[in-house]
Amino acid sequence: MAEVLDAEAVRAGLDGLDGWTGDPAGIGRTVELPGFRDVIDAVDRVAVVAEELDHHPDIDIRWRTVTFRCATHSVGGVTRRDIELARRIDEIVRGAA
């Protein structure tokens, strides 16, 4: 079973990621894109990656913004899987901006 990262490990995992913040309970990032269609396209691409990883973020969609939140619900906090998903989300968002 995955292990919840401590605060130092979460900070280290987020180092180098764009705009992610959080603590051992969860990490998140809000992104603003040019338009609603761009947001939906990015979310569609994140959905494909989430299915590949079998690890799914919470997603809040607004007009031109989308917020991603990651935590491994089965263990009650952030694990290495969440850091990897955040890294993959960053790659997608960079391509969408």
Description:
It is an enzyme of class 4 (lyase). Keywords: Lyase. Belongs to the pterin-4-alpha-carbinolamine dehydratase family. The chain is an alpha+beta fold. The protein has a four-stranded antiparallel sheet with strand order 1-2-4-3, covered by helices on one side. Strand 3 and strand 4 form a beta hairpin. Helix 2 packs antiparallel against helix 3. The model has no long low-confidence stretch (mean pLDDT 95).
Descriptive terms for the model:
single chain; 97 residues; alpha+beta; 4 strands; 44% helix
Structure summarized in a few sentences:
Keywords: Lyase. This protein is α+β, with helices and mostly antiparallel strands and 97 residues long.
Largest sheet: 4 strands, antiparallel
The pLDDT mean sits at: 95
Beta-strand residue fraction:
15-25%
Q: So what's the overall shape? A: globular
Radius of gyration (CA) equals 13 Å
SSE string, helices as H and strands as E: HEEHEEH
- Global structural class: alpha+beta
Distance between the termini: 36 Å
Adjacency order of strands in the biggest sheet: 1-2-4-3
Number of strands: 4
GO molecular function, one term: 4-alpha-hydroxytetrahydrobiopterin dehydratase activity
EC number: 4.2.1.96
Family: Belongs to the pterin-4-alpha-carbinolamine dehydratase family.
Pfam families: Pterin_4a
Chain-wise SSE layout:
Elements: H1 7-14, E1 21-23, E2 26-32, H2 36-53, E3 58-61, E4 65-70, H3 80-96
Antiparallel strand pairs: 1-2, 2-4, 3-4
